[in-house]
Amino acid sequence: MRLVMNEPVERMDRPYARRWWALLVLCLSLLIIVMANTALTVAAPDMTRDLGLSSSDLQWVIDGYTVPYAALMLLLGAIGDKYSRRGALVLGLLVFGGGAVFGYLADSAATVIAARAVMGVGAALIMPATLSLLAATFPRAERAKAITLWTATAGLAIAAGPVVAGALLKNHGWASTFLINVPVAAVALVAAFVLVPPSKAGHHDRIDYVGGLLSVVWTGALVYMIIQGPHFGWDAKAITAAVVAGAGLTAFVLWELRHPRPILDVRRFAHRRFAGANLAVALFFLAVFGAFYYLTQHLQFVLGYDALATGVRMLPLAGAVFAGSALTGYLTPRVGMKWTVSAGMVGGTTALALLTRIDAGSSYGDLVAPLIILGLAIGLALSPCTDAIMGSFPESELGVGGAVNDTSLELGGSLGIAILGSLLATSYSDHLSDATAGSRLPASALATAQDSVGAGYAVAQGIGDKARQLAAQAAHASDPQQAGQLKAQAGQLAEGARQMKDAVGSAFADAVAHTSLVGAVVLGVGTLAVALLLPRGTAPEAEPAEDEEKELVGSGANQPG
Question: Cβ neighbours of residue 25 under 8 Å, at least 6 residues apart?
Fold first, then answer.
């Protein structure tokens, strides 16, 4: 049997002694790449004001991270399998940290978008490497528990991002939300060499680069279409991306079916457990990312919380994820993933259904129960799905397995923000138009207010500022008649500002309720599909075929004697 490296090694049936410390490094690496997106949601207003970003600029600042991240994961996961999974993690941390420094120094929309794209490339290296290293380091008996902690970390990162960003924005500019990633990445990088064992596949077959490049083309084009179409209209760019995505996917599937060693054996999607788990991950993150997108806006704009307070109020979700993860660790081995995943998806649907009750008079208290239920649902459903996906791949393809799981997650999240975000914007605009019908406000102001909830409150504030200016002029006017006219105009404007503010808040709350209803219907239908797909029982349908050469994980200096 050939060894994969020239260091002392230990077989997978003799667990690596520092595996739980290694898991801490993997979770730390996961934490920063998830927080890179959620932190930006609260830093975006400051960035927009400082750099003068248009709505298109801001959208691509957010999504410039997503396109390379989703597109490159499968190819980079396969490269990590062949050459070095730990090497992929280390290189990813270096690239991610370099992109963060670039973002900190950026002074224009173009440079910020470029920095985010570099960070996305780093994340595409890191994300599959964390899962493949986890699966390679832990024996099968402990893998589900390790994946549960990995999933819980992702849930924590979703809520922790706004908290960290909000704390930084109290005394620092938006650029600090980039720089905070650098010391964390540096610690994870050093710890990776000390605590994470070297690992790569036990065979040396050539990588299917044609399949890998086709995966980059169709996934990148699909994510671009998802972003471009709903947000900016179905113009030539979006339609071209749709055509490229469709043609690329077709070519990818045909190529993979004929290739003797495909980068991804697409026949796996014929297996119910694998297909159901991927569908569940995509649908869940469609709902979670979509809900997170509009709930953070509701907390900041409608309820008036600052960035830090908004982040703190999302923490019940993170705590509930940990509780749900502990619960699924107990239940799944006893009742099977079909029931825990289905229960989690029912919980997610219930959380979205509760958000349909949001209206203009709702307070933060009305959001607590949906946040807790959604967090419990995430913890309950996602760990078994990730374990099922990773368990469908042989040891030589763990990086590819991690990439498949993470691509499902990222595609679902992108769809959630694009579809539910677009629906939210349309619903808000329609509700605001109805609420301000017949008002005396200028048509230009109403059109601006319909663009977004932030623009609506900015218009109301502008009208209020004008009213205060006229009131001040009236107080200093020497002519009583002129003072009276100015005072009357100020009163009208002040009333208009109040009406606009109330209308914006009411319209956005109604839009949240409407969007949540659509999200609940989508996730509810998806729940039925997943429940039908997933087989009964606690054991996998079939164990994946073993490689001719069993994978070995190096211990070297990392393994205590």
Answer: 188, 191, 192, 195, 196
Domain 9-207+263-431+507-558 fold is Growth Hormone; Chain: A; (1.20.1250)
Q: What CA–CA distance (Å, rounded) separates 318 from 384?
A: 18
- Predicted confidence (pLDDT) per residue in 258-301, tens digit: 998 899 999 999 999 999 999 999 998 898 888 888 888 898 88
- Go through 126-157 and write b for each residue having 16 or more CB atoms within 10 A of its CB, e for each that does not: bbbbbbbbbbbbbeeeebbbbbbbbbbbbbbb
How far separated are the first and last CA of the chain, in Å rounded? 23
DSSP code string of 467-501? HHHHHHHHHH-SSHHHHHHHHHHHHHHHHHHHHHH
Which segments of 259-364 does DSSP mark as H helices, in order? Answer: 272-297, 307-312, 315-335, 337-354
Q: What is the C-alpha separation between 133 and 138, in angstroms, rounded? A: 8
Q: Angle at Cα 318 formed by Cα 175 and Cα 343, nearest 5°?
A: 135
Amino acid at 414: S
| pTM, to two decimals | 0.85
- Whether 115 and 51 have beta carbons less than 8 Å apart is answered as no
CA 494 vs. chain centroid, Å, equals 40
By the 8 A CB rule, do 69 and 410 touch?
Answer: yes
Which pair of tokens denotes residue 160? 């922790």
Q: Where in the chain is the domain with CATH 1.20.1250.20?
A: 9-207+263-431+507-558
5: region left, alpha or beta (phi > 0 left; psi from -120 to 50 alpha): beta
